[in-house]
Every structure is written in structure tokens, then in C-alpha cells.
Amino acid sequence: QVGVTAQKTMRLLPASGKKATQKVVVGDQDGVVTCFGIKKGEAVPVFKTLPGQKIARLELGGALNTPQEKIFVAIGPEVRGFTKRGKQFLSFETNLTESIKAMYVHISGADLFLCASYIYNHYCDCKDQHYFLSGDKINDVLCLPVDKVKCITPVLACQDRLLRVLQVNSLVSLWLPAQPCQALASNIPSAGDSGEEIVYGTSDGKLGVTQITGTKPVHKWEIGNEKKRGGILCLDSFDILGDGVKELLVGRDDGMIEIYAFESADEPVLRHDYALSESIASIQGGCVGKDGYDEILAATYSGWLTGLTTEPVHREGGSGEELKLSQEMQNKISSLRNELEHLQMKVLQEREKYQQSSQSSTAVSSVPAFSVNEKFTLNKDDASYSLILEVQTAIDNVLVQSDVPIDLLDVDKNSAVVSFSSCDSEPNSNFLLATYRCQANTTRLELKVRSIEGQYGTLQAYVTPRIQPKTCQVHQYQIKPLSLHQRTHSIDHDRPMNTLMLKGQFSFAEIHSWVVFCLPEVPEKTPAGESITFYFQNTFLGTQLESTYRKGEGYFKSDNISTISILKDVLSKEATKRKINLNISYDVSEESVRHTLKLIHPKLEYQQLLAKKVHLIDALRELQVHEGNVDFLLPKYRTILEEADQLLEEYKRQPAHLERLYGMITDLFIDKFKFKGTNVKTKVPLLLEILDGCDQDGLIAFFDAA
Questions:
Q1: Half-sphere exposure of 95 (CA within 13 A, CB side)
Q2: Residue ranges with strand state E in 215-291
Q3: Nearest 5°: phi and psi at 203?
Q4: Sheet strands side by side (includes 33-39)
Q5: N or C: more exposed end of the chain, with fewer CB within 10 A?
Q6: BBS7 GAE domain: which residues (predicted)?
Q7: Which pLDDT value is given to residue 309?
């Protein structure tokens, strides 16, 4: 085990001889580069550097046609180079003002591609060659192999769901649907020799391949995340199955390691998977532990390095003999047991020492620092936010508090015990207080929440790990006014739209900061240029929003009048705070209200039917017990009994779904008339009565008649 590791900070050095095993080199957040080999199951250190700033990336390089065994690490804004023996040969202070987030070292060893949050720089022999300012944060970078693609072609994976391909004097962007891309890799097994294909892994767990050709990138294939596994953090290709074709190795943030094999078709097939308890920060294939047996090496977030070997663990016995563990394995297990006992003794001694020292009057208790890896993202599939908290030591409990109404949804992977405390929402606007008590050795916790659009504030998580003295870290997450909207790159312009127009004495940076306040996934940095257009889609209803703004004016178009109403309220509030006078005008489409109702109604019908079925289950089960058989029941009731467990499961997963839909229809009703200057709040009880058994036409008629 080393310190906490960032994404892509572990590599295997090439083997020095035909039969030699490979050395492992890893950089951690304490700033230490550790290189070691494995002999007889024990780690043998080669070198270790002194601690310093966090290491964000670690790559290997070397001159063309020589082994790639020079080690490059990104520390803050500088790049350092070490030989395989641990001697430092390079210390390059870049001209970047912030820390390096992503790095790629070209095979030539002379080309360095570095990315800070929004800035990409290409250096050749430590001299600045190219510079590019990205429209959103850069998550990863790589360059297509020059020996195959003749010119330097860097590819940036950005947070706004774009792969940006930089070619000489031009930028070719490629939009990726779904979620932002987090990891890139080239040298794909199936790619043949073109060298133009890259694999990408997204934050919602999809895996795909794109071919970067001269004019327009071509999308080859994408594998969805059917099993709802974690986002992809690292990729590698290596022939682990020994069939002469490289497999794709994938590491995910929920601890899954997967091996995809290219059998016959272009699209790979999942052959093996293995679950670890922490997110996989780096993954590599090679021969480390024992000569002749390949393995997959993974580095996890808290710094564990784990190997999965192809070496058979059991020795084949004779006909009557049981399978026996090989002698080597038995020795390994007994040495591990001894080591554990030794550690437990040491812990007890240290604890006693701590208790004694804490009773003396001069002792001062210091707060232990611990790092938390967090991710708060909107899921498109069920319009909910997932909050993932990962701590380097075991979590004791997490307290979740919110000053806006939100629903906590069930997560299958979550084994923590949740308890709710009653809270007073009036004086100190407290809408949610829930405690998750974790089982021993839980280092990762996943929660799901659903917010209500128009209600905005802060969600806070108080994380307390199992360390002495007890300490707690608070992490805050903004719930934005239009929190269920997600960035997209195109919308349907044929829908009936409502328009909101703003004019006033505000700068481009000011209106951009208001849009950042209202909507998720908008880059905080003010965009380059005079004006900008962003498109969004509501993940719950499928309605859309187009926002275009520049200095002194802003236009917002949506097919949902409630979206426009929320924007009008929030933007005028923000402008008032800064004492800016706004001239607000709007153009409302009657047709858009009918259009939105048509989008909501199928969801409403489905949820009403589900609720009715769930209410019937108990009575039907009682009948079944009394009568013994249920053949006399109508087929639809028999179906409810057969599907009872699935229905209950679905109902439990979405606790307040029906109330949310009722709320949206009520808001739509109030907003429609608010723009006409009429208050219809007295008619809301009548609307709610109608909703219970109303068809779509009846609902539209009520809206028109009111």
C-alpha cells in the first residue's frame, strides 16, 4: 500500500530481459514516487522519492524504438522525470498558472501534452509549441501514434461531453451523447494498424470507440452500462487470456475490474469481471509476480496495489485426492496471518500509549487529516443526483442535511443503515436530516437524491471516518434552480416555444454568472467571444431550454412555461441583489402548455396505475391465503399477484414520484395564468380532484376553460 492515488498514476516498466518480471512504479498524493518489484510474493523496493506536492499523473516515455522506461510525473505546475533507477533527470517548470490535471508523453519522449483545467499546452523539448483554450474542463488527453498517423493529433476529453480533436490549424469537435468522458486510450486491439481509433470511457460507465479521421470523426461502437456499474476511470489493452489478441482492461469507480475480449465482431464481449471495494484509479496488464504468468495490476483510490494472476492457485490432485492449495499459497496465507497478528498487537500498544498521553495536562490533540473523493452527478435515466463519497479509511457515519425539499431514493449497492430525524423547516429552513451508519470497513458510500425544480439551496454531507480523535469533514453541494436540466448539443426547434427576453446594464461576465447559478453543467469560466448559446434538456420531463446571451441582453426559450417562470424569478432576484435594472419581456405560447401536458400525462397515468396496483396487493394476497387458489380472479388481478414483488420494488424506489408529477402540473397551471396576470391558486383543489381520474383531453380542456 502507498498513499492515496489519483487517476492514472501507476504504470509497469518494460521487462529488462526475455523472462524477467516487470517493476511497478506508482505516484501518490503525498508526492512520493515508489518503484518496486515482487519476489516470492513480497514487495522488494527499487527506489522511493521524498514526499512533496500531490502527483496528478504518471506516464512513461523514452526515445523512439527504445524501451519506454523513463518515468514522468506531473506535480503541481511542473513535470519531473526519473530514470528506472530513481535518478532525477528532468525538472521542468511549465508556464501554467495552475496545477496540471492531465498529461500525455509521446512515444518520442520529446513531446509533452499537458492540460490544466481549461488550458491545453504542447511542449517539444520543453519549448512551448501550441496552446488551446477549451470551452469546458479537460478530463484527459492523448495523442494518436505519430508513427501511424504521420502528424501530431492530440485528443482532449472534456467535461461538456465533447471529444476535441486538435489538428494543424483546425479544431474538429465530436459530440458524445450521455455523460462526460473521463478516460481515453489508444492502441486498441481491434483497430488494425490505422492508429486512428481511440477508446473512451464515460462518467456514467459507457465504453466506446471513435475513429479520428481527417475531416470528421466516425463513431464506431458504444457499449451501454446495463448493469448500472460505476463510471470508467482507467483503460488499458493487454493480452491477458493468452490468445494472441489484446483484450481491453477497464477500471471503474465502484471497484469493478472488467476484461473485454474481441472475439469475432467489432464490438467486444465482457469475458471476466472482478469486484474490489474501492474505485480503481489505474489499471495495467503485465507480468509482475511470477515469471510466465501474466496478471492485471490495479491501483485503488486509497493506495492499495492489487494483482489478479493467471497462475492456477489449486494443484491438480489424483483421482481420489481433493484439490489442494499449492505449498507456496499456504505459506503466503500463514505469513499474512502472522503479519495481521503482529499489526493488531502494535495497534493495541499504540492505543494504550495514546490513552495514557491524553490524560496528561500538557498533551494537545491534533486533528488528523483525511482525504475524501467525491462525485455529485445528475443521472439522465431516472432524473436523480447520485452522491458518491469515498474516504481513505473506513467511514463511521455520514449525516446528510438539506435546506431545500429533496427525496432520498433507494440505492441497491448501499448497505448502510439510514435513520431520519424530524426537522423544523420554518425557522432555520431545514428540510432533511438523515444519518447513514456504515458497516465496518465501508470506505465508499453512494446516495441518491431527487430535487424539485424551482427550489434551490445547499445539500451538506458531514463525513465522519473511524479514526481517533473523532473528526468530521463537511462537503457542500449546490442544488440549482433548474437542477434537473442537463447540457445537450442540439434541440428540436419545431416545438412550440415560450421566450424570455432580458435587457439591461449588465456585462457578459455578470449574466454568465447568473446562468451558472441557475443551471448545472455550465463552465464557471466566462466563455471567450462576444456571445454564447447553451442547450439543455429536462431529464425528468424531456422538455428543453435554449439560452443565448451577450453583454446587455439575454434570450431564453423553452417549451415548458414553468422553466421560463423559474428563470424569470431567479434572474430578476440576482439582478436586484446587484442593483441592476432589468427590462424583462416575454412571449408566451398557449400551444406549449398543451405540448407539456402531453409529455407529462403518460408518466402520470403510469404512476397512478402503479399506485393502484400496489394498494390492491395486500387485499389480493389475503384472498389468496383464504381461498387457497386464485383461478377465479380476473386475469389482470392474477397478473398483479404474479408481479407483486417487482411492483413493490419499483414503488419503493420512487417514493414521491406521483406527488412530484402533481406538483409539476399544478405549477404549470399557476404559471400559465401568472404570465396573464391572473391568480388561480383558488382553483388548485379543483385541479387536484380532476387529476385523479382524468384523461389527457379532459386535463387540457380544464386548462383551457380556466
A1: 10
A2: 218-223, 232-238, 247-252, 256-261, 269-275, 280-290
A3: -70, -15
A4: 10-12, 24-27, 33-39, 42-48
A5: N
A6: 368-477
A7: 85
Per-residue confidence (pLDDT) for residue 9, from 0 to 100: 95
Answer yes or no: same fold for 146-275 and 372-468: no
Asked whether 285 and 236 are in contact (CB, 8 A), the reply is yes
Which CATH code is given to the segment(s) 1-133? 2.130.10.10
Q: 461: part of which helix (H) or strand (E)?
A: strand 457-465
Q: What is the pLDDT of residue 325?
A: 67
pLDDT of residue 320: 42
Please, are residues 232 and 202 in contact by the beta-carbon 8 Å criterion?
A: yes
Laid out side by side, the sheet with 406-409 consists of 372-379, 384-391, 444-451, 406-409
How many other C-beta atoms are found inside a 10 Å radius of the C-beta of residue 683? 15
Cell of 212: 479520428
Q: Contact, 88 vs 69, CB < 8 A?
A: no
Q: What strand order describes the sheet that includes 232-238?
A: 232-238, 247-252, 256-261, 269-275
Helix axes 590-627, 635-642, angle to 10 degrees: 90
> Which residues, given as ranges, of the chain have pLDDT below 50?
318-322
Q: Assign residue 319 a region: left if phi > 0, alpha if psi is -120 to 50, beta otherwise?
A: alpha
Q: What is the DSSP letter of 505?
A: S
**What's the CATH code, domain 146-275?**
2.130.10.10
Separation of alpha carbons 668 and 666, rounded Å: 5
Closest by alpha carbon to 219, among 186, 174, 260?
174
Helix (H, G, I), strand (E, B) or coil at 705: helix
Question: What confidence score (pLDDT) does residue 190 get?
Answer: 56
The closest of 262, 254, 206, 256 to 238, measured between CA atoms, is 262
Distance CA 134, CA 180 (A): 14
- Residue 360 amino acid letter: S
pLDDT value at residue 448: 92
Domain limits, the chain: 1-133, 146-275, 372-468, 485-588, 592-705
CATH code: domain 372-468 is 2.60.40
Q: Look at residue 435 in the predicted model and tell me its pLDDT.
A: 95
C-alpha to C-alpha distance for 210 and 163, rounded to whole angstroms: 10
- Contact by Cβ (8 Å): 200, 208: yes
Taking residue 196's Cβ as centre, other Cβ atoms within 10 Å add up to 20
- Give dist(CA 158, CA 485) in Å, integer: 19
